[in-house]
Amino acid sequence: MNKIAEKLLRIISDYADGFKGAFNIREDGQCVGRQSTPNIRIDTKKDAPGLVIHISPHAQKEVVYIPACVTHGAIDDLVYNDFYVGAGADVTIIAGCGVHTDSGDMARHNGIHRFFLEKGAHVLYKEKHIGTGSGTGEKRIDPVSNAFLSEGSVLEMDTVQLKGVDNTVRKTTARLAARAKLIIHESILTEKAETAETDFTVSMDGEDSAVDLISRSVAKGSSRQTYHSRIMGNCRCSGHSECDAILADQGTVNASPELYAGSIDAVLIHEAAIGKIAGEQIIKLRTLGLTEEQAEEKIIEGFLRA
Amino acid sequence: MNKIAEKLLRIISDYADGFKGAFNIREDGQCVGRQSTPNIRIDTKKDAPGLVIHISPHAQKEVVYIPACVTHGAIDDLVYNDFYVGAGADVTIIAGCGVHTDSGDMARHNGIHRFFLEKGAHVLYKEKHIGTGSGTGEKRIDPVSNAFLSEGSVLEMDTVQLKGVDNTVRKTTARLAARAKLIIHESILTEKAETAETDFTVSMDGEDSAVDLISRSVAKGSSRQTYHSRIMGNCRCSGHSECDAILADQGTVNASPELYAGSIDAVLIHEAAIGKIAGEQIIKLRTLGLTEEQAEEKIIEGFLRA
Questions:
Q1: Is the model's pLDDT at A14 over the cut of 90?
Q2: Which parts of the sequence belong to the SUF system FeS cluster assembly SufBD core domain (chains A, B) (predicted)?
């Protein structure tokens, strides 16, 4: 593994000179380290680049790491990862991604993930994205996630775009069976001329399924963010979505949350708020000795973490 | 004026054997009565069917009635009405529409309204829509409203679709200059296999302009409603939108409220809620002696009026 990859791994995936448990490290489109465990088997995908990960029902409170790095320009990495999570398993998947270029060439990662959760499985999926390097080449991360939640399963997705990603298009779809639950927390920070586009489609098809979708955006510089969600309640179910954005400088945000109630037993709620940081908040922190910039940074940090 | 027209007028426009003040009555595509007043001049439009209405700055607390009726099938009435509202005028425009067919032929009204509000003008625009008659012909009302609000002007739109309109597509756009204010209350009731599609685009272009958009929907039977709004804040301004829907039977609603903040000084907020009537509300009213149906009716009535 090269130095840049190691540095990226520390930021995106809790890497500390190695991983405990199951892992696969992808560097510039190649596998540079892999380990399976008795309950988590990581295989090479046969029909396309990527992994097939089988998590047995015996996996309880286990963690699997599948970080990916692009460490220089002229790499356009496309990968397909499939997760089969056995009934009643309880696992954390850590799937960060870093793209780095010091040249004028683009560094891109495009990870297409499918999650198949069997009955009662519980998955916490964590993902941090970052772009680094002094190059003028575009840094892109374009994730696609498709989740299939069987009866009573729970998928929590905690996704964060830290900074430095020039352009991103994020697409997430999910289908929920009876009593399945999907919880998404997304935080995206854009600066300079960056753009971020995010799109969620969640279909609640089973009785008493539920989704809670929380999106936080900070658009600084002249960056532009576009948010679209579509929550479909096709049965007795409940959906809640919330998208809040903070603007700074000339940043712009377009938020378009869509609710479709196809059954009278669907209960769907949405809230959205867009605005800049309130002056009083800044003043309060300045009286505590922070500069205006430090105050702004603190507020944004807290907002993205909320 | 025929009996059906008279009956429709009573429902949609507070008609009581005549109007006080300025009015124009449109029946089956023809003018069947018109009166101007010193401050409100109603002229026939020269380049298209419809009216040009000039409201002078001297008009204060005056009312102008411009109801339209289609009283039988095989009428597809298209009308263009332009309102020029002088600086500082304060008027109420009552513009209801009823469509009636006892045959298998369609009865349709398609009213295209433009509102030009000069500095400081205040307009309350009220509109009730209804479809009646025993025919199988389609009853359609497709209104288009384009509003241009000069500095400090206020437009309040209070629009209600009572019942019986088979299909409607409603399009409203508005551009707001500095300190202009737009307040929209829309209520739509659909039943049977009716459909309603409503679309708002509001662009806040002047400092301290504001929009408040409240939409209430009740979808009964197998009716389908689609709501889309796009509020654009391009400067220091505030926007609030709220769309709430009650579902009954197999009714469905799709709500897609969009917020675009193109300036960090735009403050935009949205809320949406879709669901059926809570059981407790019904029980409460039943203990007061109402049947379940009466209770439901009361709740829906209150909801649409709120």
A1: no
A2: 85-303
CB neighbours (10 Å) of residue B104?
A: 11
**Closest A-chain CA to B259:** A255
The whole-angstrom distance between A300's CA and the closest CA on chain B is 14
> pLDDT higher for B83 or A306?
B83
CA A150 to the chain's CA centroid: 21
Which tens digits make up the pLDDT trace of A161-210? 999 999 999 999 999 999 999 999 999 999 999 999 999 999 999 999 99
- Decide if A28 contacts A71 (C-beta within 8 A): yes
DSSP string, A107-175: EEEEEEEEEEE-TT-EEEEEEEEEEE-S-SS-EEE--EEEEEE-TT-EEEEEEEEEE--SEEEEEEEEE
Q: Which of B81, B46, B47, B77 is nearest to B64 (CA)?
A: B81
Task: Dump pLDDT digits (tens) for A279-292.
Answer: 888 888 888 889 98
Question: Could B252 and A245 be called an inter-chain contact, meaning their C-beta atoms sit closer than 8 Å?
Answer: no
For residue B269, give the nearest of A251, A256, A273 by CB distance: A273
B306 pLDDT higher than 80: no
CA distance A271 to A231: 13
Alpha-carbon span A152 to A184, nearest angstrom = 17
Which of A270, A277, A282, A296 to probe the B interface (max B CBs under 10 A)? A270
In this prediction, residues A139-152 reach a mean pLDDT of 98
Sign of CA dihedral B44, B46, B51, B52: negative
Would strands A68-70 and A60-65 be described as parallel, antiparallel, or unpaired?
unpaired
- Are the CB atoms for B237 and B266 separated by under 8 Å? yes
Residues 237-266 of B with CB under 8 A from A: 245, 247-266
Chain B environment of A248 (Cβ under 8 Å): 264
